[in-house]
Amino acid sequence: SPVAKTCMSLTQAVFAALCDALLTDLAVRRAAEERVSSLSAQPGFVVSLVEVLLEPQAEAAARQLAAVVLKNFLRTHWCEAAVTFTPPLVSDHEKAAVRAALPRGLSDRVPRIRTAVGVAVATIAQWDWPDEWPSLMDELLRPLEAAAAGGGGAGGGGGAPAAGALRCLELCASELSEDQLPAATQRLLPLLLQLARGAGGDAASAKQAARSVRVARRVIERLSLLVGDDHRQLQRLRAGPVAAWGVLATEQLGQLASRYRVTPPGGEPEDHSLSIALLRLLQLLLSSWPASLPPARCSLLPPLGALLSGALQTFQQRLLCDAASLGEEGADSDGSSLGLEALVSHVFDVLAAMASSSRHHKLLLPALPQLLHGAIAFTQLPVATEQAWADDLQQYLLDEEDDTFACSLRVAAQQLLEELVDSCGRRVVTPLCAAVERRLAEADAARALAAGGGADAPAAAASWWRTREASLIALGLAAPSLLRAGRAHAKRGDAAPPPPVTAERLLSELFLPDVAPAAPPLLRARALCTAALFSPGASAAATHPLLVAAAAALQPTEPPLLRFAACRAVAGFANRAPAAHIAPAVATLLPAVAGLLSSDEVQSEDVAIAVLDCIAALLRRDAATAARSEGELTPLLLRLWSSRHAEPLLAMAIVDAFKALALAPSALPGLVEKLLPVIGLVLTLQSTADASAAASAAAAGEEWDEDEPLDPTQPALELLSAVVLKRWPCGTPLPAAAAGEALPALLRVLGASSDPEVLRVGCACLRRFAQRGALGDGSGGPAANLLPPTFGRMLRAELGEEAVHHSARLFCDLLRGQAAPAIAPALGDLVGLAVAWLRRKTLFGLRLALLSFLAQAVLALGAEATLGRLAADEAARLPRRGRPELDGGDTQPAVPLVLRAWVDAIPDTAQPPARRELLVVLMRLLTAPAPPAPPPAELWHLSVAGDAQVDAREARLTRAKARRIREAGLGLPLPHQPQLPLLVRAFQLLARELACPPASGAEGRKARLASSAWGALGGYGVGESDESDVTASDEEEEGEEGEEGEEGE
Question: Where along the chain do its domains lie?
């Protein structure tokens, strides 16, 4: 037919373009990619891709490329509801053709093609299954039923359909719906169980069994989400198919453990895929289906112990091998490891799940001594890891951090020990200390063997200290529990049992031999780091020798790895030990640690940050040494900042070090003298760059959007705020460079920047300048001419809401403090800009900040002048900037706009002082008419929204929830809000505020609030303004509040 001929010609064109895209010629390849892109717009393209993918005679590379193109095409063109959808949409008849053809590819002989087809089927299934593709489950189960009935072995061509179906089910299991629960529990799980039980000794059947277990795990995981709280369904599944999988997991793990063989280093990569799949299934059952395991729970530990025992033998053989002789571990189709590390890590995960299970944790208690003894062995440091650390300090830091994401047997064993200590508490501390003693004895025996000579001496010499180092790791993991037990025993005496070992004994006896110069470097490093963990519970006499050893390890003649490890240990001592124990050693330790910053090995950002953190910790411990070191330390930190300013985290670590140095009062003058020129230079460069970019944009007739701020800008602002302005002695004038150079440069940056973080820190700096009186009284000064335009630009239209929020809060603080004269020249313009921002649909936090600023403006300008300014500004609008949120806005006059926003914000203001301030100022506005403002009667009768009327039978909708619905524009139904006269609403809010129980010391403020309200009415003959009567009435109302509650309102 003509349609068939068209499809055939399109398929040929697609195939030719894919083949050309595989060529090495760059021009030909790019032309082919453009042809594929143009062909994708033609109807039938997706069908042609599937035909190329499923053609067994085509080149394998072309088929794989077709699979890649198909996967991307399905994600972007199959369903309009997809986030990644782009037109055109695949037609319905093309979708039907694809769904009919794809399942054939699941039986392809090429495993990669089967996987690619499985991915395509899973991609379609997430949209079409089961509604548009109801036959998919049957199509996937048929090859499994044939394999279970003996229709084909696991290997060869007969096993390919089952392998493809399993791979597809593994990807599709997460899309199971409630309608497919019967098929999943009655057909799929029993079939998978039968396939998993049929695993033989050959590799092909083991792989098929592993696939079956992986699919079953995903199905059971999906079932736990679908069943939810249906107790009857849960009970049926626990007693039926899920329980059968628990029995299978324990039985087959026992069989696999009995067949475990120790693989020599560099041998054929192990394939533990079936064991890993069973362990992951067992972990799921322990965490989500613990009640399904009682029939087999007594047999859980023996297979796990046997697997660990065999794996430990393999690990011991590989411990002293370098990376080149170890070879690579096997991986599955997803890239997940199937070797020794993956096997042991999953065994540890199962044991950790048992420890955290309320039903099964008691099974571990009798086995804790052997388990802990074995886990310590897995924390030994392999030679390959030692070599990697020597070459890269960054790798050492990644592996040794407490919250590391590194994947290794050493890290997995530490995480298991930590989980056991957290889950079992004191019950694990004593057996852990006993296991440590056993390992230490083994290390001593190996050390004696190495010293005695003989055939085994070289291996013993290389391994004894690794065993000892691993024992110290385990001991450090128990440090919090041991320290708590020691404190409890010291406080309660015999009523609390003593810890198995004390921190004093550890620091004075156990660790000292290991920190001697003759000890292996990494053992010295471990002993120092572990000693730091126990330092809070030791005396100064016990701590001092360890600090001396740390200073010796920091010397330039020591290996870089030891020096950096000693630096981490010193940071631990400084952060944990009492200050009196550390202060005498700071003078010796600080120069040695600072010398690391000049070392060639400290090139990594994370390593440099760790050194800076150590410096900051030492500076905080001894102010006298900090002051003496300022002359050398400040230039060193400034040079580091200058050379590496593009690393933001490092720059902030330098700022933290300066903050710690500024804690020493006698160090502050020299520190500030050196910092101010640098800060002024950085801020000047930033303002110059902003001005140049703005001028270039204006010359080109374009709108200027500020680029990212210069790298040193934010750290410079942090130094200005937290070091110079915060720490400078009160009552002492600021240095001349602060007000003469830094302040003008700061104002230029604030006037040009739109970065929220720069504005946040810059506003903090300006606030501190105001507190120091550096902004002047508005009559002059080095920055007087810059203040009004800068303030205006800090509310300009193109800023974001977060930036404007910082500016509005700053203006409030300036008006409340002694800097009101400095802001007075710009106050009228700022009021107009604040009104313009209120016209937008902004978030409540910004609206409250703007209203608080307007309240302060009313108090500064007077109510009459403010109303006059608002009345003259009715046409205030934000300029259009091509952004929807800046266009239009509320078009009502300024006075009603502000008053309605004011009344609407008062009930949502959480802080009582701010709420009362808004109420007081509102009363002043209602009683202070001034031409051309509206007369008071017009304002009093202005219609505003009252409290929402909510049906008591409906779910309660708070004002905060309603506000979030309005801000998000969700279009959800909101309760009715009646319209009230402004005066009625104002006194309604006033009565509610006066009815609230006053906080401590708030009685006077409430009395003044009531006095202000009655005075407002008294001016118009509505009531008397006798303050004494109002105060008495207020106190009586407060006294009755406790009895009447909200009814008193």
Answer: 238-321+330-360, 364-498, 996-1048
